[in-house]
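To illustrate the input format used throughout this study, we show a single complete record. The first block contains the structure-token representation of the backbone; no residue identities are included at this stage. The design step must infer an amino acid for every position from geometry alone.
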């Protein structure tokens, strides 16, 4: 499965790199079947439109790190990476994204919106609620896109960035262009979600559907039933299906976003450079984009790209030590 239908064929390639000093990724014997650590108690805090469920690990006065999960995953992707970073003295915040786990909308009248700018605002609102002026932000899938977008829109709030699969900000205009049949085949579920049948099917078979995505996106990851069940509980959120369906329909210009985010989406559509210290990670899921060359020109600050062989889409859970090392290394080269 390729990484994204929208991005990599459209990026300019730029030779050269500004390399961060740091540890090279360690050899991977194979993705762990289950986490070896448990997350702490889930807390709740009002932040913007949401009551956000999140876990926190490490000393309260430690360097803030915010880790954002993707779809169809949840905060348990970071159980091991969070523990590793907390042991190094970081204050690690892992929130449920809107539509997952205990994160709920504070008002029934708020649009159940999955567009990228809404998720970026959620992250900044959480930082404000927790009184975190700046943080290292890391993520993959929806979380990786959100981390990039926060760094693009509010670089003063991001002291360092770890982005799995690189620069995956959505460009709605570019997204209208067809790809090769092989590439399009990998995104069958996005077209399925575009139909009433797809919405009904996802609503009826959410957990079975998402387990199929886990298997397809990480074919070498032999996760066990208990590991999947930990995350699958997060899909019981009453807004989960609405958020997921809107997210994918919005990307295909089949559903409108909210006008309050128009200015942010205009900025993101221009593909702004990321200026903060960054480490990007490519995995087997990324296919031909694994080497990172397609998006190199979009990171203009201190930068390094790392490649993980034998690892699928859920990088933090499949390779927690390597992901945690990237967070720790980028933190060394950032301020605040």
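Output of the design step:
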């Amino acid at each position: 499965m390729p990484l994204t239908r929208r991005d990599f064929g459209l990026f300019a390639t730029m030779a050269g790199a500004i390399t961060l000093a740091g540890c090279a990724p360690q050899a991977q014997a194979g993705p762990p079947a289950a986490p070896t650590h448990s997350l702490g108690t889930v807390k709740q805090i009002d932040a913007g439109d949401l009551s956000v469920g999140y876990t926190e690990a490490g000393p309260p006065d430690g360097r803030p790190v915010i880790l954002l999960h993707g779809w169809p995953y949840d905060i348990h992707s970071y159980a091991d990476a969070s523990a590793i970073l907390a042991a190094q003295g970081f204050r690690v915040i892992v929130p449920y994204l809107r539509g997952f786990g205990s994160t709920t909308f504070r008002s029934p009248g708020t649009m159940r919106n999955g567009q990228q700018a809404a998720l970026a605002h959620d992250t900044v609102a959480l930082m404000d609620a927790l009184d975190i002026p700046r943080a290292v932000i890391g993520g993959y899938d929806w979380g990786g896109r959100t981390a990039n977008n926060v760094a693009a829109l509010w670089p003063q709030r991001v002291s360092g960035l770890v982005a799995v699969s690189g620069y995956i900000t959505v460009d709605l205009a570019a997204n209208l262009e067809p790809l090769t049949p092989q590439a399009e085949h990998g995104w069958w579920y996005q077209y399925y979600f575009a139909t009433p049948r797809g919405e009904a099917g996802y609503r009826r078979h959410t957990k079975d559907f998402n387990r199929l995505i886990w298997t397809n996106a990480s074919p070498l990851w032999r996760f066990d039933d208990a590991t999947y069940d930990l995350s699958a509980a997060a899909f019981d959120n009453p807004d989960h299906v609405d958020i997921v369906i809107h997210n994918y329909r919005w990307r295909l210009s089949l559903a409108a976003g909210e006008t309050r985010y128009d200015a942010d989406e205009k900025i993101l559509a221009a593909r702004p450079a990321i200026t903060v210290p960054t480490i990007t990670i490519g995995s087997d899921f990324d296919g031909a984009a694994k080497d990172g060359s397609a998006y190199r020109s979009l990171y203009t600050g201190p930068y390094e790209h790392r490649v993980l062989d034998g690892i699928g889409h859920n990088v933090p859970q499949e390779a927690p030590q390597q992901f945690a090392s990237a967070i720790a290394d980028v933190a060394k080269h950032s301020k605040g």
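Structural context for interpreting the output: DSSP finds twelve helices and nine strands in the chain. The chain has one domain: 8-332.
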